Amino acid sequence: MGLRTTPHISVVTPVYNETGSTLNALVGRLTAVLTATAADFEIILVDDGSRNDAWENISAISLADPKIKGIRLTRNFGQHSAIAAGLDYALGEWVVVMDADLQDRPEVIPELYQKAKAGYQIVFVDRAARPEGIVYRFLAATFYNIFNFLAGEDYHRRWGNFSIISREVVEAFRQIPDRDRFYGGTVRWLGFRQASITARHGERFVGTSTHNLRSRLRFAIQLILGYSTRLLYVAIFLGLVMAIVSLAMATEIVLYKLTDPERPVPGWPSVITAVFFTAGVTNIMLGLIGIYLGDLIERSRGRPRYVVQSFAGDRNTGAIKKVKALKEKQRDT
Ligand code: UDP
Ligand code: MG
User: Fold this and answer.
1) Stretch 192-197: mean pLDDT, rounded?
2) Which atom of ligand 1 is nearest to the CA of 17?
3) pLDDT tens-digit series, residues 311-321
């Protein structure tokens, strides 16, 4: 057969504005580790619309080594979309997903792989020590607590993207159409046999995080909306509490009048309080419904979560598709 054999391990890495030195170090360390771990492997670098020379570097690296492949998205779609793109093209029996900035240390992969081979289809790395500052960790912890409450999930906040998943899991993941698929959350939701290992989280190789507070907040809100309708219940609950409070206030006014019929009820304050109160509750409700409606409209458009501009590596688009089609045919028969 003229086609190359499928690799045993694929590594999928989203890349956004990472420097050439980071990418070279990443590929170098990955190659060293993977050569010792598996007979065959591939490394897929997904350029998530970088504004720097990341794509030129990926192209150059992939020219020098056929095991390295590049996928370039047409613009910045976000790291989870980039991961989804990588998973669509990864051919390995096992797929490792990790960040490009070397915070996820390649040297942890053998342990990850061993754990998976021991009988798990999904193994995540539990980030034991995080180098980030206390404010970052506090915000992250707060977010995950709110997320877990609203989504009714038990998402582990020490789990990032760093993980290994089996071919079955990759195929299951690819069938989920959600536009905001959040890699870790979705994989967890999928089920299968899951486990985790503990490893130290590294420092960023160069530069600073590509996210700022605004992009993190936007992502947080998207996640909460995508994962739950619990906010609607919170709204109903709030309305209920307010209704009970106003009922208590009304009772108080009645009692007040009953105990001393001569005393006049303070009309203006009580009326205005009631009006503001009702308006407030209505606004909260409307706002929440609006948010969900907007989100629904966004989703109903059914747009793909990423668009590919070009590929780099020993195989062009057609060849990748050919191998994939063959693989799928083999699986079906
Ligand atoms: N990334 C991406 N698209 C983006 C932002 C980030 O593909 O829009 C990649 C980035 O290159 C890195 C990973 O996602 O490989 C995690 O990003 P970063 O290190 O900035 O996030 P943090 O570690 O601070 O959560
Ligand atoms: Mg990072």
Assistant:
1) 90
2) 11
3) 988 654 445 55
Record the tokens describing residue 285, joined without a space.
Answer: 């409700």
- CA-nearest residue, atom 8 of ligand 1: 78
The pairing of strands 122-127 and 41-47 is unpaired
Residue tagged 């870790």 (tokens)? 184
Single out the residue of 67, 29, 69, 75 nearest to residue 51, CA to CA.
75
Average pLDDT, integer, range 136-148: 78
Minimum-distance ligand to the CA of 139? Answer: 1
List CB contacts of 195: < 8 A, sequence separation 6 or more. Answer: 115, 116, 120, 122, 123, 124
Cβ–ligand 1 contact at 157 (below 6 Å):
no
Q: Is 50 in the pocket of ligand 1 (CB under 6 A)?
A: no
Please give the structure tokens belonging to residue 35: 């050569």
Query: How far, in Å, from the CA of 209 to the mean position of ligand 2?
Result: 6
* CATH class of segment(s) 9-212+305-332: alpha beta
| Under 8 Å between Cβ of 153 and 129 | no
How many other CB atoms are there within 10 angstroms of residue 145's CB atom? 12
Calculate Rg over the CA atoms of the chain. Answer: 26
Tell me the CA distances in angstroms from 67 to 108, 314, 318, one per residue in order: 20, 8, 17
Q: What is the pLDDT of residues 241-289, one digit of tens each?
A: 887 888 888 788 788 888 887 877 777 767 777 777 787 778 778 777 8
How far apart (Å, rounded) are the C-alpha atoms in residues 307 and 309?
Answer: 7
The model's pLDDT over 218-229, given as tens digits with 9 standing for 90+, comes to: 777 777 776 666
Please state the domain extents for the chain: 9-212+305-332, 230-300
- In this model, does residue 131 exceed pLDDT 70? no
Higher per-residue pLDDT: 88 or 305: 88
* Atom of ligand 1 lying closest to residue 48 CA: 7
Cβ pair 15, 100 in contact under 8 A: yes
